[in-house]
């Protein structure tokens, strides 16, 4: 069922009320289904695979385990899955060992943004309440069990714009509650994991905003 942005906002607020999460009535609604531009399944799939491979590099760098053999392995996979051209500036910096320590940590947190894309592709069944980190083993297997981009695409069923917008509106309001708590020097309400919320917010906006930057997502609240 198609909803207008105001209806979507009100549905989100009802969920926030049920979960005892603070909100403000005047926080704007997000894009309508006419304004949003959902990326193609293939473009999302390529972003998924490139992101996962660089996250693996970041994890190895964090544990001082990224050697030449691993680098060659990752480069081969980037070629095999046809995603070498998809790498962002920050991802290239990770791969080139020129990223700052904080950038490496930030890249590892991209697991949460990656999880959202798996959900958008129908591989993850639902975006559960954002109080815990993603299932990393499942997240890895979603790609590692495939031998090519085409094989990966066979498990993809892109979700509707309405489903994606519902989640985008809700995460926008979750993120506002997390930011508000941080400004008040309080913990995030109702056990929300603020880092998970932030990454999901950026990924959902990337899905619906044509000019969104994966490296520097729109997470304004």
What is the gist of this entry?
This protein is mainly alpha-helical and 221 residues long. It has helices at residues 5-18, 41-62, 68-80, 89-95, 101-109, 111-120, 136-144, 149-153, 161-183, 194-208. Helix 2 packs parallel to helix 4, helix 6 packs across helix 10 (194-208) and helix 9 (161-183) runs antiparallel to helix 10.
Can you walk me through this structure?
This protein has 221 residues and is mainly α. Helices cover 57% and strands 0% of the residues. The chain has 10 helices and no strands. Helix 1 crosses helix 9 (161-183), helix 2 packs antiparallel against helix 3 (68-80) and helix 2 packs across helix 5. The radius of gyration is 18 Å and the shape is globular.
For the secondary structure, the number of strands is 0
Largest sheet composition = none
Q: State the assembly state of the protein chains.
A: single chain
Number of separate helices: 10
Query: Which series of helices and strands comes N to C?
Result: HHHHHHHHHH
The secondary structure category is mainly alpha
Q: How large is the radius of gyration?
A: 18 Å
Segments where pLDDT lies below 50 for 5+ residues? none
The end-to-end span amounts to 27 Å
Helix content: 55-70%
What's the average pLDDT?
Answer: 95
* Residue fraction in strands: under 5%
């Amino acid at each position: 069922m198609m909803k207008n942005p105001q209806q979507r906002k009100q549905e989100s607020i009802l969920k926030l009320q049920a979960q005892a999460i603070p909100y403000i009535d005047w926080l704007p609604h997000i894009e309508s289904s006419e304004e949003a531009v959902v990326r193609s399944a293939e473009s999302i799939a390529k972003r998924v695979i490139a992101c996962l491979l660089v996250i693996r590099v970041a994890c190895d760098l964090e544990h001082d385990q990224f050697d030449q053999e691993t680098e060659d392995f990752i480069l081969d996979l980037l070629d095999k899955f046809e995603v070498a051209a998809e790498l962002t500036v920050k991802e290239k910096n990770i791969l080139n060992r020129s990223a700052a320590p904080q950038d490496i940590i930030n890249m590892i947190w991209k697991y949460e943004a990656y999880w959202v894309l798996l959900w958008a592709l129908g591989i993850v069944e639902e975006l559960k309440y954002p109080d815990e980190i993603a299932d990393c083993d499942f997240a890895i297997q979603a790609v590692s069990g495939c031998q090519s981009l085409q094989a990966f695409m066979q498990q993809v069923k892109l979700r509707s714009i309405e489903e994606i917008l519902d989640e985008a509106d809700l995460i926008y309001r979750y993120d506002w509650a997390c930011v508000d708590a941080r400004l008040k020097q309080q913990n995030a309400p109702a056990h929300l994991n603020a880092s998970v919320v932030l990454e999901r917010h950026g990924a959902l906006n990337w899905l619906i905003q044509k000019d969104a930057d994966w490296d520097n997502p729109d997470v304004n609240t």
